[in-house]
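User: Okay, second chain of the day. Same drill as before: sequence in, structure tokens out.
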Amino acid sequence: MQPYSKHVDEKGLFLLIHNFKYGDRGSLKGSQKDADAIRDVVAKLDFDVILKENLTEEQIICLMKDIKKNELNNRFCLWVYVLAHGTKGQQIYGVDGKCVSVREHIMKPFLHNCSQLTNKPKLFFVDACQGATSTAQTSRHIDSTADTTFSEVRGVPDNTPT
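Assistant: Same drill. Structure tokens below.
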């Protein structure tokens, strides 16, 4: 595998979608602190940061199209991070209560037919609950010295032991 090279004049693009005001569905308590911390760290890593908050389903879909069309020239990397309510079907909710497919509308536009990102890293992180009921927090130790490879990211099942 060839190492990826970054040109000096290229910056990464970090898109943070932070949906936290859901009207009757309530709000994501504490997510503002998470969003601030994530944004502060990424800003130090040679990324331009775009923060979008409280988007509807239609606004999320339009944003992804706009990012693909207008924001990817001279980028060494795309990193999308979503903080939102979600479902078990790998979907997130817009603040209007309508679902957005993570695969179809957030990942796919950048994985297929996106010449600006050919052979460049594309990172997608989704920090979302997976249903209406809350689950207990789980804490795990991960051996960072282990040789690990990842193939496909899947949701954590509700029956994960604590």
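The helical segments are 31-43, 57-70, 102-111.

User: Thanks, on to the next one.
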